[in-house]
């Protein structure tokens, strides 16, 4: 008995139980929706369970690494990610008109996924190094670090990932104390450069934005996704149509219903009550992450924790926003719920870092 | 420096960070609130509007399934074809009480117990939203009867489907294979290959044989149709249409007439025959007996038929030509003889005296010849003609296992040939390295002796033997064996030839080949082991008989066919090609549990040659052959 307790204690030493329970509940919700969204396809569900287990093991491993070690990884990870992105640009495989995958012999990898973690790590590390001086030129340096990979990802083209990575980097800049005046300046500059952006965008990206403004303009093309997913959410009403009874989902009106649009299935079958509970669950997880961030003891840990937390939130907001028709369609999964292994691993890797920050002895700088 | 650090890590900075984090928290809350307002708007204020839209969701995209490509033999005779028929299909999720509905349905349309069994099996394997067939090939009367009663059966519909049919059934089942309903594993596979979209609407996929290996060619490209429907899901009009592209037709190198002749020659006996064209590797006949009716698998096989096939002691589902492994027996000897000449271990003139057994120096154990008392003086030519074992025992001892392995490996024994259907097995051509890695034992000289006459660890498939025979017949050219000769675009009718693929050429001395080949011709002449099979042939052919042991015979005992269980009797083997001077066909025959190659396997080869070279059909004489009574 005592032995088991010891082992249990050893295994959970670096776990944050509050956060872990939140994650597990969201995963369970994800499996229930996935079962319905795939039309009771058990093999898809068991694949997803395997994805989750792999991601949980990775989270556990990361949580066991002390922060100093993780910090040492920041620069190498960033450089490897950057090299791989250049590799993609030169030799990447073209799939659905975009060049995102790199074949490294053993398997195919999507280096932009690695960057989702590498960017905040690198920028937090950078600010930690330059903590003493923090002047405008340091912020400029950090911006360059951020923009290099973002431009490479934009070229693939993968607008969704580029925007999310920009957001994760911006959160570090913001939390590191970028002055409000510059932020205001950036917002104005961004607004001013919109026409330029418009002109370099790919056709399909422009179409998505036009469609957002008026989906009925193109009901069978790009607007189809938005129309069908808003019908799904709206027709769910307050209590929903019941598990496995969503007509939009089960009769295949919904596109990508086990991956990016899985929220529409959830919303159709569980209604506003389900949505309320789901938002609340996410909010609890975010709140816990914020507490961990506040308690973090060094500049590096504070910045990285804050950025991971806000990026997690951004995924949720962008996904739900696109499915409910208030944001354009960008390929962003709903964290912990959408089908897919890569995003699950990236997400839990981030949570692993947060747990490590929370559970390892805090080093106070003197 | 130190002072600076202390200055920086301090309440003011921390306060600033916390303020920024608080701002972020507000940001999160505000955006979540926006989402919530949006949900409230959609699900409460506008719920009725969207509910109506969902109910009347009018535009559905339905796939147009392409017609599957057809399969013909080399002379244009159909081996797999399509026909249109009306099927009665059930969507389980739309029916409350399935059992009673089916009972009621059975009162107006005939539904046999087998139909129901098959349907139950399908039901277990499918999703409840799928449309599952309960009856196919409805007659006009049945269609009219159901149409009049349709209102009583919501969730049951008549659908026009294109169905697959295999007119030749058992004769080519091991070549063609079959298609069957797409299951979960197929779906996963399709998803991995990013082909799922092309199978939207498809119900079947190739599972085995040509139907499987040429699935990409046969399936075609799925089209799409945007249809406006009414609230009940019935289509009102078509808005746009991308037509499907039908799959390509395949023209096989198989000669159906030859295939049938070979089948007939086998009668009711079990075994396999593979015949290749030595000039290009085309497979002319590919027989595995018994075959099975591949039509049974198309709509999902019922339990009763499945048990019959799967539990049969004759194992009709086993593709013996492709996957059956047998010791090659004495058909191994021509390759040994070539090795002896090419590696300089024997000259054609060398002869030895055969006492009827062979012993390794200093070892008591005797390796017996099949002929008690031996063959007298034996040279290389005679050793093949009378199939002398002792000659090869001593030869093998001189060659050593690794020389045998390396030389004979060039003829493809113990390796997959790469034929264009899946599931081929590699068999085994042993070597000392193999034994070490597999059994963690060193190779003993005694092991080599039984390998010499194609027993011991040796295992080959009939396909491999035919491949090796082809290489002798054409003087060293290894062509890839293939079943598909041409691919035809089913829309334009354009035919694309698949040229023969020369894998490699062996550099064999013409004189050595000549010595072995002349001995193989003499095998079929008076005094040879296959002489009887060649009586009155108007062409010459070359061959080698073999006997493949099923069970070992103890030292000091004799093999007695009559006292041994039928399934433990030896397999008869024969490899041959014809005409001997300019080969047009090379083959390997295996007849299970019927004794020696000369008496049962060689006559089958003769009949196949007669058909292919002279156009003569096998006579009813097969009925006189030993084995079980013949129905044909």
What is the fold's blueprint, element by element?
The complex is a heterodimer of chains A (366) and B (632).
Chain A: H1 2-12, H2 17-37, H3 42-63, H4 67-91, E1 93-95, E2 98-103, E3 108-109, H5 111-129, H6 136-155, H7 159-175, H8 180-200, H9 203-213, H10 223-236, H11 247-250, H12 262-295, H13 299-323, H14 341-359
Antiparallel strand pairs in A: 1-2, 2-3
Chain B: H1 2-8, H2 11-45, H3 47-55, E1 59-64, E2 71-72, E3 78-90, H4 98-108, H5 113-125, E4 132-135, H6 140-149, E5 156-165, H7 173-176, E6 178-181, H8 184-192, E7 204-208, H9 209-213, H10 215-219, E8 223-229, E9 235-242, E10 249-252, H11 256-266, E11 271-276, E12 283-289, H12 303-311, H13 320-323, H14 333-342, E13 351-354, E14 357-358, E15 367-368, E16 376-379, H15 380-385, H16 389-399, H17 401-409, H18 432-439, H19 445-452, H20 462-473, E17 477-479, E18 484-488, E19 495-497, E20 502-505, H21 510-523, E21 542-548, E22 571-578, E23 585-591, H22 597-614
Helix pairs in contact in B: 11-22, 14-16, 14-21, 16-19
Describe the structure.
The complex is a heterodimer of chains A (366) and B (632). Chain A is mainly α and 366 residues long. Chain A has one domain. Chain A has 14 helices and 3 strands. In chain A, a hairpin with a 2-residue loop joins strand 1 and strand 2. Chain A starts with a helix and ends in a 7-residue tail after the last helix. In chain B, 36% of the residues lie in helices and 20% in strands. Chain B has 22 helices and 23 strands. The interface between A and B is large, with 52 and 46 residues.
């Amino acid at each position: 008995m005592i032995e088991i307790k010891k082992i249990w204690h050893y295994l959970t030493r670096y776990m944050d139980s509050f956060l872990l329970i939140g994650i597990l509940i969201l995963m369970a919700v994800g499996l229930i929706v996935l079962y319905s969204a795939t039309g009771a396809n058990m093999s898809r569900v068991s694949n997803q369970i395997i994805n989750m287990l792999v991601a949980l093991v990775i989270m556990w491993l990361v949580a066991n690494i002390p922060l100093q070690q993780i910090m040492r990884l920041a620069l190498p990870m960033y450089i490897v990610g950057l090299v791989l992105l250049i590799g993609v640009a030169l030799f990447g495989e073209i799939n659905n008109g975009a060049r995102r995958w790199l074949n490294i012999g053993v398997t195919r990898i999507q280096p932009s996924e690695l960057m989702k973690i590498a960017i905040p790590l690198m920028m937090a590390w950078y600010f930690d190094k330059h903590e003493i001086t923090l002047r405008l030129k340091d912020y400029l340096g950090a911006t360059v670090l951020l923009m290099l990979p973002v431009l490479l990802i934009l070229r693939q083209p993968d607008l969704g990932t580029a925007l999310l990575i920009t957001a994760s980097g911006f959160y570090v800049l913001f939390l590191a104390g970028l002055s409000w005046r510059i932020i205001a300046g950036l917002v104005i500059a961004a607004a001013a450069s919109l026409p330029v952006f418009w002109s370099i965008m790919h056709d399909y990206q422009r179409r998505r934005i036009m469609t957002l403004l008026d989906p009925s303009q193109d009901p069978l093309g790009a607007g189809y996704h938005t129309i069908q997913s808003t019908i799904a959410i709206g027709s769910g009403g307050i209590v929903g149509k019941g598990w496995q009874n969503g007509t939009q989902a089960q009769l295949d009106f919904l596109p990508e219903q086990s991956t990016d649009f899985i929220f529409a299935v959830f919303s159709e079958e569980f209604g506003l009550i389900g949505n309320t509970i789901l938002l609340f669950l996410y909010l609890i997880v975010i709140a816990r992450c914020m507490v961990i961030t506040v308690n973090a003891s060094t500049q590096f840990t504070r910045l990285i924790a804050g950025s991971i937390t806000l990026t997690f939130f951004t995924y949720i907001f962008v996904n739900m926003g696109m499915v409910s028709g208030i944001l354009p369609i960008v390929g962003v999964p709903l964290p912990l719920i959408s089908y897919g292994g890569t995003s699950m691993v990236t997400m839990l890797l981030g949570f692993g870092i947060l747990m490590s920050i929370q559970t390892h002895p805090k080093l106070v700088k003197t | 420096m130190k002072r600076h650090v202390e200055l920086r890590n301090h309440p003011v900075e921390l306060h600033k960070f916390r303020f920024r984090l608080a701002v972020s928290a507000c940001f999160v809350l505000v955006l979540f609130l926006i989402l919530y307002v949006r949900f409230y708007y959609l699900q409460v204020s506008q719920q009725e509007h969207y509910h109506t839209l969902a109910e009347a969701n009018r535009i559905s995209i339905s796939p147009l399934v392409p017609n599957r490509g057809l399969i013909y033999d080399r002379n244009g005779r159909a081996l797999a074809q399509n026909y249109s028929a009306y099927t009665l299909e059930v969507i389980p999720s739309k029916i409350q009480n399935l059992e009673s509905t089916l009972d009621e349905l059975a009162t107006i349309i005939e539904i046999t117990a087998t139909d129901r069994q098959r349907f139950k099996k399908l039901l277990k394997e499918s999703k409840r939203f799928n449309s599952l067939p309960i009856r196919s090939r409805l007659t006009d009367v049945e269609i009219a009867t159901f149409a009049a009663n349709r209102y009583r059966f919501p969730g049951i519909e008549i659908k026009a489907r294109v169905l697959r049919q295999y007119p030749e059934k058992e004769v080519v089942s091991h070549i063609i294979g079959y298609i069957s309903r797409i299951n979960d594993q197929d779906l996963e596979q399709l998803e991995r290959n990013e082909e799922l979209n092309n199978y939207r609407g498809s119900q079947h996929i190739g599972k085995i044989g040509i139907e499987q290996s040429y699935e990409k060619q046969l399936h075609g490209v799925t089209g799409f149709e945007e249809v406006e429907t009414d609230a009940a899901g019935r289509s009102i009009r078509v808005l746009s249409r991308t037509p499907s592209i039908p799959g390509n037709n395949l023209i096989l190198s198989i000669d159906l007439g030859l295939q049938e002749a070979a089948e007939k020659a086998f009668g009711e006996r079990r075994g396999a025959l593979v015949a290749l064209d030595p000039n290009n590797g085309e497979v002319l006949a590919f027989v595995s007996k018994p075959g099975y009716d591949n039509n049974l698998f198309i709509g999902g096989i019922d339990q009763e038929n499945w048990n019959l096939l799967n539990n049969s002691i004759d194992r009709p589902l086993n593709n013996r030509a492709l996957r059956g492994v047998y010791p090659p027996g004495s058909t191994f000897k021509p390759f040994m003889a070539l090795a002896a000449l090419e590696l300089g271990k024997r000259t054609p003139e060398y002869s030895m005296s055969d006492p009827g057994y062979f012993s390794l120096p200093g070892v008591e154990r005797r390796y017996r010849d099949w002929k008690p008392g031996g063959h007298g003086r034996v040279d290389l030519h005679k050793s093949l003609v009378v199939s002398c074992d002792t000659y090869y025992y001593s030869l093998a001892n001189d060659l050593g296992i690794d020389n045998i392995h390396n030389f004979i490996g060039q003829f493809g024994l113990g390796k997959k040939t790469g034929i264009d259907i899946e599931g081929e097995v590699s068999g085994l051509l042993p070597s000392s390295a193999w034994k070490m890695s597999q059994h963690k034992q060193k190779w003993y000289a005694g092991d080599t002796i039984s390998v010499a006459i194609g027993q011991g660890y040796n295992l080959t498939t009939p396909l491999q033997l035919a491949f090796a025979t082809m290489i002798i017949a054409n003087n060293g050219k290894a062509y890839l064996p293939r079943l598909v000769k041409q691919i035809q675009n089913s829309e334009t009718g354009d035919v694309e030839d698949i040229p023969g693929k020369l894998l490699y050429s062996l550099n064999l001395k013409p004189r050595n080949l000549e010595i072995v080949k002349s001995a193989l011709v003499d095998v079929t002449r008076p005094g040879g082991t296959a002489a009887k099979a060649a009586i009155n042939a108007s062409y010459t052919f070359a061959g080698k008989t073999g006997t493949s042991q099923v069970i070992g015979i103890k030292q000091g005992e004799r093999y007695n066919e009559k006292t041994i269980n039928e399934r433990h009797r030896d397999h008869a083997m024969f490899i041959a090609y014809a005409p001997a001077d300019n080969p047009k066909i090379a083959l390997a025959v295996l007849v299970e549990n019927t004794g020696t190659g000369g008496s049962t396997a060689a006559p089958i080869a003769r009949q196949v040659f007669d058909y292919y070279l002279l156009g003569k059909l096998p006579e009813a004489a097969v009925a006189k052959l030993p084995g079980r009574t013949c129905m044909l």
